[in-house]
Every structure is written in structure tokens, then in C-alpha cells.
Amino acid sequence: MSPFPEDITNSITWKRSLGTQRQEGSIMTAPRFVRNMVMPFKYVQGRGALALVGEHSAALGENAFVVGESVALSLTNKAIRDSLASAGVRLRVFSDSARECTYSAIDRLAKDGTDKGADHVIGVGGGKAMDLAKAVAMKMDVPVVTVGTQCATNADGSHESIVYSDDHEYVADIVLPRNPHAVIEDTDIIAGAPLPFIIQGMGDALACKFEAEAFAKARAKKKDAAVPTVAALALANTCYENLLSKGPKAIEALRKKSISSEVEDIIETVKLISCLAFENTGCALAHALHNGLTKSREVKGQHGEIVAYCTIVQAVYENRPPDQIRQMVTWCRRVGLPTALKDLDSPSGRAIEIAARHVCADDLEMKNMPEEARQEDILRAVKKVEQGNY
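The structure corresponding to this sequence follows.
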């Protein structure tokens, strides 16, 4: 059951993967061939950007509610408090308990923020903290500012929150009525995070081009929902080009504890470009297969790592040019992303069958593929990837 009050629930707008508009008690079909683009109001990135939190917070109100992860807030607490104070913003509520985005956590924190008179939320941390802060702000019906502290996720700017159980089982995907007011990415903080985070973020972003193009083909063929903008498809392609051309150099710089122009570009690619691309198109086979593999409980790896492997499978499934697939595989190996099931703890044949069955029968992301998937075709694509038969 959703914890949101009726007036907030009824304001939920697009459910992208189905191309419908959701309201309590009804589903209205979106007009065909309408184009729309959603995005954060402001995106701010750079060294020392954390000092600008107060300025952007003050534009929203005088009483802030900071929600974040304990580690993230231990790194940013003083700078955020100083920035808020200098901008004349009072810190009404401070919570470092953002461990999981659950309905109970959303309920508890929203009540606390409302009771103490907060008029906006500041989310600090990784994906869980971002999703929790955004959902809390939605339930309170106030705006939100997000402050990223690592680069494994593009959740900072999106208008969705993924809700889990206390045991980290997927529960729901909430489509929020608006994107964050401001997204603030301090390069010094993000570059100082463990290196695997940015590698995982690049793995997730790798899927953008392939899923966006599948989404566009599906909408043109099925004529069942809003079509993507030219801008969204261009961003998805730029995302891919940046990853391949700048990703390895960014990783090399970070290993040397250096912040190069490539590091800045890759942070923007993951945090902004991939966010806008996926927000305004949709996920497809790569994420559906990721969901199926995690459902098998035999796969070991973080979200972006699994998605990177599944993107290779989608490219093979689509019969993409072999040179393009080999280029992607070579890039994954160079930056340290999985290219075979052995890199994901060698799940069994049974696990792969469970994943393929999930893709074809249960996963809504497959609505964004132009053709209806067959289990044998998914299994064949996985087999080709495992054999290196591109």
C-alpha cells in the first residue's frame, strides 16, 4: 500500500515504461506522438560546489531538512551547515539514517519534517539517499535539492524513486511529480569516493544509447505512447561517445588522485547526460535482464556492473554490428566492467533460464523493445556473448 496522501498520489505524472499517465483509481492513455522532456531545474558541478548548497536552498525556503547517509554526511556535514548558515537558512531537521528507501522510512521522515516545519529537503549521498529524500519531499509536497557524494548512480536528477523492503527486495518504482530543484555535484567529494563507484556508474550509463534507440523504435512501431525528443536521443548517443572516449582517461587520472577534464566530463556524463537520456526515453532489455539475473539470487555484482554485461547481451540480441560490440567489450575490459558471466560469479544455467523467463513474462521494461521477446532468443544472445561470438 502506498503511504502517500491522496492529494499527493493523484499528482503523479508520467509512467514512462508504459507510456501512461497514472492517477489513483484510473489510467489514462497518453496522446500518441506527443514529445515531452523532463529535467532538473538546475545542475551545478565543480570543485567546491558544496559551498553553493545554501544559495540554492535559500531559493526554496528558510527551513531545511537534510536527509542523508551517515558516511556521506560525515564528509559533507560541516560544509553544508556553514553554507546554509551563510545563506540564512535554518536547519530544522537533520537525519543521517538514509540506509534504505522503504515506505516506512518515507513515512517516518516525512512526518518528522512536517512536524518541525521544514519547507524543503536536501538529500545527500548515493542512490538510496537520493531516492529516499526525493520521496520524502514528494510526500511533504515540498521541493528537494540533491547533493551527490559518489558516481555510481544518476538518481540525483531523476523524478523517480525506487522503493525496497527492509531486506532490499524491490517493491515499487514511484514516478514523482517533479525533478529536483537543484542537483549539486562537488567534484572533490565525488573524485574522493572509492574508484569502483564511478566505474559502476559508467556501466549503468553504457545502456543509455542502446535502450534509448530501442525505445524510439518501439514507439514508432507500436504507436502506443509519447515518442522521445531528438534531444533525448542525441544525449543518449553523446553519453556513449563520452564513455568510450573519456572513460579510460578518467579512470587513469583518478588512480593517480588527479582531477582532469576527463574526470569532470565523466561525472557530468553519468550524473546529468545519462539521467536526461534515460528519463526521457526508457530502460529496455539491458535493465530487464539485470532484473531477471538479480531475481535468480546467483549473480554477484553491483547494479552498474550487471547492467554493463546485460548491455552487451542486448547489443548481440539486436544483431548490432560486430565491430560495435567488440568495441564495447574492449572498453568494458579496459575500465574494469564485466564482459562474461564468470565476472558475475558464474551463475548456473538454471539462473540464466530464470532471468530469461522473467524478461519475457514479467518485466515491464520489455515494453520498450520493438519486438516481443522470446526466451530462446534471450538465451541464444547470452550464449553468443559467453562464446565471444559477436
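Residues 1-28 have pLDDT under 50 and may be disordered.
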